Amino acid sequence: MIRRVVLVLIVALAATASRAQDPAHFLAGSLTILDPWSRATPGGATIGAGYLVVENHGTEPDRLLRAGSELFAAGELHETSIHAGVARMRPTGSLGIAPNGRLELKPGGYHLMLTGLKRPLREGERFTATLVFEKAGPVPVTFVVRSMGANADQHDHH
User: Fold this and answer.
1) Which residues are CB-contacts of 68 (< 8 A; sequence separation ≥ 6)?
2) Which residue in 7, 31, 38, 69 has its CB near the most CB atoms, within 10 A?
3) What is the CA radius of gyration of the chain?
4) Burial category of 158 from C-beta neighbours within 10 Å (exposed 0-12, middle 13-18, buried 19 and up)
């Protein structure tokens, strides 16, 4: 019986440690930030976009307010919509994450508009940005830069 309990504890600790070390997962209180990524940008571009998923495992709502980094001047939340076949982007201000809810930032929907890029984003590189939440506060995360044509279904396998 004791061996079984010890084995269960070892497996649980190993699973927790591997998840904590997974560069695509970041924890902040009851929030889990999953798979932050961006698309590569062409030379001379001063605007990029950031995508990720936030899961709220708590009983209180939170709000994603913005992102910051030494790599860009501002990280604002925007929404893409299609009107008469034309894609338009508009700032949304903050975005809420309901208790036991999920917020997905993805191409063609909500995203972080990264303005004032100091240099192009190159496929395969990683950069650090700080997400700012109303309750969880600042949370540093690492974004993986995928190809210019990447979509939300592709994952980093480096």
Assistant:
1) 74, 75, 129, 130, 132
2) 38
3) 18
4) exposed
What is the identity of the amino acid at 103? L
Q: Are 76 and 105 in contact (CB under 8 A)?
A: no
> Can you identify the CATH homologous superfamily of domain 24-146?
PCu(A)C copper chaperone (2.60.40.1890)
- State how beta strands 74-83 and 110-115 pair: antiparallel
Task: Show the CA angle centred on residue 135, arms to residues 133 and 137, nearest 5°.
Answer: 50
Q: Which amino acid is at 12?
A: A
Q: Which residues contact 7 (CB under 8 A, 6 or more apart)?
A: none
Amino acid at 122: R
Per-residue model confidence (pLDDT) at position 2 = 57
Q: Does the pLDDT of residue 3 top 80, yes or no?
A: no
Q: Where are the domains of the chain?
A: 24-146
pLDDT in tens, 33-72: 999 999 999 988 999 999 999 999 999 999 999 999 999 9
